[in-house]
Amino acid sequence: MAVAALEQEILSLRKRRQLYSMIGVLLMVAVLVSGYSESNSMNSGSFINGLSKFFDYPGEIVKEAWEAGWALFGLILHFLPFMLETLNIAGVATLIGGALAVVLAMASTRNVDSYGPLIPVVRRMMDIMRAFPELILALFLIFVLGSSPVPAMIAVAFHTAGALGKLFSEVNENIDRKPIEGLSACGASWIQRIRYAVLPQVAPNYLSYFLLRFEINVRASAILGFVGAGGIGAELRRTIGWGKGSGDETAAIFVLLFLTIMLIDQTSSYLRGKLVGAGRAH
Amino acid sequence: MTAATLQPGFDSQAILEQIRKRTAFTVAAPLLILAYFTYTWFAFDIPDLLERARPDRAVILATDAVAHKVHVTKDLRRGGVSVAIEGERTATYAKGASPDWVQIRGDDAVVDLDEGYLIEITGNVIQFTVPDYGVIKVTATKTGVETELPPGDIPEWVKDDPRKFDARPTLDRRVQVTKTKIEVHNYFGGWENFWFTFNSPLHGKSFGELTSLAMSDERIDPDQSNLSLIVDEFLSNSDWQHGAVFVALFETIMMAVLGTLTAALVGLPLAFLAARNFTPSFLVRFGVRRLFDFVRGIDMLIWSLIFIRAFGLGPLTGALAIAFTDTGSLGKLFSEALENIDNKQVEGVRATGATQLQRYRFGVIPQILPVFVSQVLYYLESNTRSATVIGALGAGGIGLMLVETMKTSRDWENTSYIIILTIIVVILMDQASSWLRKKLIEG
């Protein structure tokens, strides 16, 4: 009798589960279908018309790049300094944001003896820093400071501090507390405990997240350049604004951007694999 | 007997070497970073930047964002004094209905700016009484302005130019005189005309009045009910463009949701083709992996530029740009998750005689579902932010609107309104997705 009731229970649970997943799938399909048809009607050009034109622009660029021939390599070299500027924006932003993130993480994890009342405050602060759209901060700073790489750098660093801070504090939560206890037994101060008990444990994971963030920040800096922060994005805006005839320059920037991102991507995933072991390299 | 045989596994030389290396590293790394910062300090030209910085703009933006001003303008060519919110023709007070701090007598006026600041306009002469300073007398002539200041140094807040007189003794009071007009700005806190435009029949009504209006059946506009009139008047508010802002926000969210969902649904099947334990063919695996790298490496910036050319402005463009980039990122993550699954469950399902599709459905999918859901939600979160940026590149949505209002920089309260709404939406999406993630994965 009890077994039959149990089976009944399981059956009803399974039915409910199936119903839920059914609703989930239907909801997703509905969102996709209605979303695409709605956005298609909101778009200024329609999907069907665009589809035939889709390869026109890339084709045009490739054609002009082909006609430029070997000169394309010269153009790539010409744009290299701008790419370097974008990389610098990302580099400085990641360094400053990362340093800030370490401070924030150390102040927001119970596991490393952060000051209790501070923990929820710092956590909310990191949430806000993380959610704050980079674009808004960058545009505001461009308005105040003028067009320059610095606004983008500050905007990216601000976001980085929040995003990395959260990841770092998650790492802090999973460390072994024994070294901390050992050090406090010999009377070490909080700073000393962080330096000699916490940092050696978390350093590989921190570095790995740091590299991942650098990768993301390079992309973000390139995009922010397009809205007026200098670097390769600003150059891209210029060449695209010229329209027909500057396809070779646009192509050179595309190639440069693609190669740089790929290179950083591969290097950082290799380094991260070495740092934290292949299994956790993500 | 050597030291090595006495203490096996303990090589003091090697340890010393290691310590030396570490010391060198802890000194070198900060030095390198410092050198890098010095280099970028000059590469970014920060000294020049600090010189060109306009902190006053930030102050203006901050005041303008939380306040509005009312202009009292005397046109010296045509005569007549008018009072208008933000100096806009559509928001001009009717004759005789001007606010009580302005007294208009024909072509002359007395403006009481509170706290002892008083302005008297008679003909083309203006007398500005400033407490603790004295009376400034400015006369507009045919060619410019003549200013008589009280004796002593000229204070910082007065810009005395033969063509234009400009005084702003406090942040919220300003007087400008040129040969053609006299203009007095009086600042007030709050956003003006936020709910309804100045000439709307509903302007200045309180919330209670509006509720009772919505309930009553005496129609203001015979063509539609009061409630729909209220909603209509609010959304079509020409100063604040609530309707357009909401549509733009909706577009941005749509970009993020559609893009992420599409990327996830396309990325999952492709991930099977890229995973070692599901696709034995090296060629297929290699091809799909390079495809992932390719679409990811092209980056959202380039994809959106290409899609804007093909499909024009709109949410579809942004959604496709996000979908293309993230198909690569999500596909890569999913294929890694697939390679790490436990094969025992698949074998168990196979032992019951399941077909290949059933093995995937019951043996594989349940194992990668947590990774799938959590990664998709993470990407949804970050894509809401990305969608605002892509919008600014020209794909539309709230990003484009923000860039445009900033460029015109007419009214900063509009910009701050859009900024606040965007931040609220992004934070809400963030919270919603982390709540959902917790619910779905931690049970």
Automatic annotation (TrEMBL), chain A:
Ranges that cross the membrane: 19-37, 87-107, 128-146
The keyword Kinase is assigned to this record: no
UniProt xrefs under SUPFAM superfamilies: MetI-like
Top-level division of the source organism's lineage: Bacteria
Localization terms from the record: Cell membrane
GO terms for cellular component: plasma membrane
The entry's keywords: Cell membrane, Membrane, Transmembrane, Transmembrane helix, Transport
Domain ABC transmembrane type-1, first and last residues per copy: 83-268
Membrane topology: Multi-pass membrane protein
Gene Ontology MF annotations: ABC-type phosphonate transporter activity
UniProt keyword Kinase present: no
Family listed: Belongs to the binding-protein-dependent transport system permease family.
Protein's UniProt name: Phosphonate ABC transporter, permease protein PhnE
Organism this protein belongs to: Roseibium limicola
Lineage: Bacteria, Pseudomonadati, Pseudomonadota, Alphaproteobacteria, Hyphomicrobiales
UniProtKB/TrEMBL annotation, chain B:
Transmembrane segments: 24-44, 244-275, 300-324, 386-403, 415-436
Domain called ABC transmembrane type-1: residue spans: 249-433
Primary location class: membrane
InterPro entries (UniProt xref): MetI-like, MetI-like_sf, PhnE/PtxC
GO CC entries: plasma membrane
UniProtKB keywords: Membrane, Transmembrane, Transmembrane helix, Transport
Highest taxon listed in the record's lineage: Bacteria
Cell compartments where the protein resides: Cell membrane
GO molecular function, one term: ABC-type phosphonate transporter activity
Keyword Cytoplasm: no
Membrane disposition: Multi-pass membrane protein
Membership in a protein family: Belongs to the binding-protein-dependent transport system permease family.
PANTHER family named in the record: PHOSPHONATES TRANSPORT SYSTEM PERMEASE PROTEIN
Name this protein carries in UniProt: Phosphonate ABC transporter, permease protein PhnE
Native source organism of the sequence: Roseibium limicola
Lineage, uppermost ranks: Bacteria, Pseudomonadati, Pseudomonadota, Alphaproteobacteria, Hyphomicrobiales
